[in-house]
Amino acid sequence: MINRRLFLGGASLAAGVPLLGASGCATARASLRSGTTAANTGALPVGIVNETGRYPDSEVLVYVVGTDLTTNRHCWVDSDGTPRPVSLDDNTDGGYTDYAIPLDALPADMTLPYMSGRIYVALGGKLGIRIVIDGNGNPALQLPAGWVESDHGYGVLHDSVEFTHDASGMYCNTSMVDQFSVPIGIRLTGEADQTTGTFVPGGRDAVFETLSADPVFSPLVVDDLRVIAPGHGLDAGLFPADYYDPYVDRVWSHYAANDLRVTTNAGTFTGRVQGDRLVFDGGVSPFSRPSTRDVLFCHGSLAAPNDGITGPVAAILGAALNRSTLLASSAQPTDDPDTFYLADITNRYAKVFHDNTVDGRAYGFAFDDVAGFASYIQDHGPAEFGITLTPF
What we know:
Elements: H1 4-7, E1 44-50, E2 60-68, E3 73-77, E4 83-85, E5 101-102, E6 111-112, E7 115-123, E8 130-133, E9 139-142, E10 157-166, E11 169-174, E12 179-180, E13 184-189, E14 193-196, H2 203-212, E15 221-222, E16 226-228, H3 230-235, H4 245-254, E17 260-264, E18 267-274, E19 277-280, E20 287-288, H5 292-297, H6 310-323, E21 331-332, H7 348-355, E22 376-379, E23 384-389
Parallel strand pairs: 1-23, 17-21
Antiparallel strand pairs: 1-6, 2-3, 2-5, 2-7, 3-4, 7-10, 8-9, 10-11, 11-22, 12-16, 13-14, 13-23, 15-16, 17-18, 18-19, 19-20
């Protein structure tokens, strides 16, 4: 299965920036488009609906950027749905590119080519996308980092949808892994008709109000612009670097005397803490005691290699730590959302999104797809893809 952690397996982005940072706002624009563009291999009809209630279509800018899967080079997509290779010569707008398509100029037959990347939407201002040269000497996308105060688009409401579209199908999700600003729902039709990511009425306000009232997580709220993910907040000095330490200490102490069983597609692996490492049988690489940063980013000691053995165990451990279920159950993964986020130390940033989406699914951290709780959908015979900017 292709998931968020595998979306960006092609050319990497420059500068460490992850890719794939009025009245009349609701329009009659169809949520799903018909029609194709024959010149673009695999052209998938895509449409965007603006129901924000804040911005007219003329003030909503759309950017489609990522990796062209036919060339494995970074690209941007024009209003014809054609992927264009990026170039340093594209930095024409004060040192930044101008890849934006105003929503009111988005064609009714807009399509996505075979590519992996993001569709950004910016409300009321431009995003700063720059082309730089990567370590291999190729032109590369340097994308927005909304969690960085010096970023060009820091003062602009913006968010994105991640996707991979190739000959095997369409794989897509909304994401709060880095930040949250604009409530977005997605719909994919083809072999099935699927929708995810849609917020409940008043959901955006509830996210901001809940986290603003939390003494630990409130520094992550940036006015009415966005909420920064706690990992990025930690790096910026806005979130305690030792937040998860007491919980991890309790987990490590508990499993020094008790077995932890983790079940993946490859089987069930049994582990115990030996010294300062969690050691499993079955060829799983041992895990060092994770730091708070490791937990929040699901990286470091919790990095998940694409090996079919250690990687899936790492993902399940990362999810259990973010959801704080490891002390409640020695058999992982757990799949009852009523048992998630109950501990005093837990990822309340992720929790608030699950609490305020219609289907209870969200991508609040990188391993939120464990047990199927991510706002992710896929279709092996996609016909149409729709994005809705839902009411604030």
